[in-house]
Specification:
Elements lengths: L1 E13 L10 E8 L5 E2 L2 E3 L9 H13 L1 E8 L3 E7 L2 E17 L8 E8 H7 L3 H18 L1
Parallel strand pairs: 1-7
Antiparallel strand pairs: 1-2, 1-4, 2-3, 2-8, 5-7, 6-7
The structure holds adenosine-5'-triphosphate.
Length: about 150
């Protein structure tokens, strides 16, 4: 059995001038190029960068996978799940952080994601593929609504 650890972000931004309502809040959601599930961006911690922190990995992975740079506001509860890779059972734990949009454009997303979109808060739950992501999204939504009210 292999244990894996990843970090990622639930990134939000307010509406822009360009035709969006400035009171609307949008969340960054992506479709994985491999398994095609709709997820939040994330990836392995300290896989290629020695001593990389969870926070550094989360910001890097969000940037690489979606083209978006975010600023970390706070950590969310750990997500964990099991899957099978080439006949081997793997357990993955994921630390997501609530992040505020800083810069970047989803058109510059990486190959790991086949689609990267900004969704209204009300559209996120039904778009997400996995139960564990829906659960951490519930927590992120509550924290986000507290921050922006
Ligand atoms: P990472 O982004 O951590 O580098 P990865 O992109 O290689 O990892 P995962 O997204 O973890 O891979 O997907 C590995 C397997 O786990 C796939 O079969 C996928 O369908 C499944 N999976 C992904 N996210 C979840 C989840 N939240 N709950 C259950 N299964 C998941």
């Amino acid at each position: 059995m292999t244990e894996e650890f990843s970090a990622g972000g639930i990134v939000f931004r307010k509406g822009l001038d360009s035709g969006e309502n400035q009171n609307d809040v949008f969340i960054l959601v992506s479709q994985h190029s491999g398994h095609h599930g709709w997820v939040f961006p994330k990836g392995h911690v300290a896989d290629t960068i020695p001593n990389e922190t969870e926070q550094e990995a989360a910001v890097r992975e969000v940037q690489e996978e979606t083209g978006i740079t975010g600023t970390i506001l706070e950590p969310l509860s750990l997500v964990d799940y099991w899957y099978v890779f080439r006949g081997e059972k793997r357990h993955k734990t994921v630390q997501y952080f609530l992040m505020a949009y800083e810069s970047g454009n989803t058109e510059d997303h990486g190959w790991e994601m086949e689609n990267v979109v900004w969704l209204l808060i009300s559209e996120v739950e039904k778009k997400l593929t996995y139960k564990s992501d829906k659960k951490v999204w519930e927590e992120a939504k509550k924290k986000l609504l507290q921050k922006i009210k």
